[in-house]
Design brief:
The complex is a heterodimer of chains A (113) and B (116). With 113 residues, chain A is mostly beta strands. Helices cover 0% and strands 50% of the residues of chain A. In chain B, strands 2, 4, 5, 6, 9, 10 and 11 form a seven-stranded mixed sheet that branches. Chain B has a four-stranded antiparallel sheet with strand order 1-3-8-7, with no helix packed on it. Classes of the chains: A mainly beta (113), B mainly beta (116).
Chain lengths: 113, 116
């Protein structure tokens, strides 16, 4: 079946540090890939997504590239801010519409000033 | 756009009582809504998929008689936890998928249920 594996947290960085959160997936076919972010006390928000191989999703300085050859969708940001502190979830959905999302376990990021 | 609300945000109830949680899409019509449960330090677990006007599809291991889902309109789905017990205490999150979108879900802020 479909599954997502993302790096265990928590991750603690200083402001302006470089961020990488690894995510790999197992899926049949060609899924769409997502990163969701959950700020403290809030619901999940879509951060970025990619729907086919070699696509790069980007938003708020975050980027992730859909790598079919390595079945990966690693999240990166060149310079994190305190406001980026949150839990980040990698997820996939199979093609075809109205398909359920399969989530990774989440990675908690804390950015210190 | 694409705002999903949940009510209540937090509820405390006694064991044996039933609790209803509402999920609304505020600015779009949602043909499909999803209900998740999130345990501390764990990922979201999909409980059921709710399609407007039809019965919900429950994931394996989820008791449909305990977690009643109703999707009576294109903007509202409800989850009722019947005869709640302390082990049902959790964070329940809904999401909604716009009818024209193929794979993007918009999430509500979640409901913290505590059963005493």
């Amino acid at each position: 079946g479909n599954s997502v594996t993302q790096m265990e947290g928590p991750v603690t960085l200083s402001e302006e540090a470089f961020l990488t959160i690894n995510c790999t997936y197992t899926a049949t076919g060609y899924p769409s890939l997502f990163w969701y972010v959950q700020y403290p006390g809030e619901g999940l928000q879509l951060l970025l997504k990619a729907t086919k191989a070699d696509d790069k999703g980007s938003n708020k300085g975050f980027e992730a590239t859909y790598r079919k050859e390595t079945t990966s969708f690693h999240l990166e940001k060149g310079s994190v801010q305190v406001s980026d502190s949150a839990v980040y979830f990698c997820a996939l959905s199979a093609r075809g519409g109205s398909e359920k999302l399969v989530f990774g376990k989440g990675t908690k990021l804390t950015v210190n000033p | 756009g694409a705002v999903v609300s949940q009510h209540p945000s937090r509820v405390i109830c006694k064991s044996g009582t039933s609790v209803k949680i509402e999920c609304r899409s505020l600015d779009f019509q949602a043909t499909t809504m999803f209900w998740y449960r999130q345990f501390p330090k764990k990922s979201l677990m999909l409980m059921a998929t709710s399609n407007e006007g039809s019965k919900a599809t429950y994931e394996q291991g989820v008791e449909k008689d305990k977690f009643l889902i109703n999707h009576a309109s294109l903007t509202l789905s409800t989850l009722t936890v019947t005869s709640a017990h302390p082990e049902d205490s959790s964070f329940y999150i809904c999401s909604a998928e716009p009818g024209r979108s193929t794979d993007t879900q918009y999430f509500g802020p979640g409901t913290r249920l505590t059963v005493l």
